Amino acid sequence: MTEDFEDFFSENTHWVADQGGAAAHEPPQPPKSRKDMRRRRAQRRRRTVTVVVAVVVVIVVVAVGALFGYRGLRSWVAARQAANAAAAIQDYPGPGSGSVAFTVENGQGAVQVAQNLVDQDIVKSQAAFTSAVAAADATLYPGTYQLKQQMKAADVVTILSDQTKAGGFLEVKPGERVSAVIANVAKIDGADADAFKTLLTGDGSDILPSEAGGSFEGWLEPGMYNVQNRTAADVVKEMVDARVAKLDDMGVPSGSEREDILNIASIAEAEVNAEEYYGKVTRVIDNRIKQGMTLGMDSTVAYGNDVEPSMITQDMLDDASNPYNTRQNTGLPPTPISNPGDSAIKAALKPESGDWLFFVTVNLKTGETKFTTGTLEEQQAQFEQYVAEYKNNNENAN
């Protein structure tokens, strides 16, 4: 009701100009209808809402424009900075000239390699090389490469990331025998193969730890080693020192127990071709030793005869004079039979829990290996069953 009175007076009261110095009022107009007053109030509200909406729209438009303008400015600035940075990178146009041997050492990163390339005037700047490595998402492989001076950085990255172009490096692989290492050294230009053979077949004086018993087998850490223009003693010492450091890091006990761990690990790695079985094989070895059984491992017989397991003959299996013949002699063989990798060593440290005494790789293609369980009689029966399965699979494969 109050609002109606206010509207009435605001809409029907009119002030007139001063005439003759005295204020006067026109006679009041007839009052308007309530319907007309409500209509006018609605019009005023609509005008107010329209103005508010228009103001909000203007604010939003201005804000959105400012946001996109800011983003566009940032993109433009970033593009300019990237362009300036690319322009600032100094690089040779290539293809280069002359010939220079360049070595990437094991464990070197892109920055260190880049600095060495700059020092030999192969690339013009570190930034050019590291940028090319990042752009190609390349992996730099150890080795000695034949390059030119003043090459384009991207061309250098292409070569250093191609392992087939690397030379002068010896790779010691997990599960590899010392005899294989000697054979691989002979294939490397610049390596004194005779010196390596003499050293690796010797007693390891001043290089091997005492628990090795004068044999390098098992004591060469797998990895890549530069052998070019280096003495055999320096390279082999690097391998043995790396092995000792790795065993220390893995918590392998020292002394004779360390040699036993390497021995067991080397057998496990030679007997099966899948890491998932290492822990079971090492448990089989422990179980058989505890029960006074022979290990019965063909891999040790093959090692003692310097042949592959597939080349074992019945005469070899019957030869008790071979100290590595674990079918005829109880206990571990005199030395490890290869240089085992980390996974096999871990399995020898902590074998899986089980009563297994026998195992057979029933499928040579897939590597599927089955282990026996139960009483001795039950396990012997299972073993015969698995041998039959192996023969059947092998005959079908042929």
UniProtKB/TrEMBL annotation:
User: Might you give the EC number(s) for this enzyme?
Assistant: 4.2.2.29
The gene designation is: mltG
Instruction: Give the reactions, separated by semicolons, that this protein catalyses.
Output: a peptidoglycan chain = a peptidoglycan chain with N-acetyl-1,6-anhydromuramyl-[peptide] at the reducing end + a peptidoglycan chain with N-acetylglucosamine at the non-reducing end
Q: Which organism is it from?
A: Bifidobacterium ramosum
Q: Where in the cell is it found?
A: Cell membrane
What protein family is recorded?
Belongs to the transglycosylase MltG family.
Name any one GO molecular function: lytic endotransglycosylase activity
- For this protein, the parts annotated as crossing the membrane are 48-70
GO BP terms, alphabetized: cell wall organization; peptidoglycan biosynthetic process
Give the protein's recorded name: Endolytic murein transglycosylase
Which UniProt keywords are listed?
Cell membrane, Cell wall biogenesis/degradation, Lyase, Membrane, Transmembrane, Transmembrane helix
Q: How does it sit in the membrane?
A: Single-pass membrane protein
**Region of interest: Disordered:** 16-43
Q: What class of enzyme is it?
A: lyase
What the protein does? Functions as a peptidoglycan terminase that cleaves nascent peptidoglycan strands endolytically to terminate their elongation.
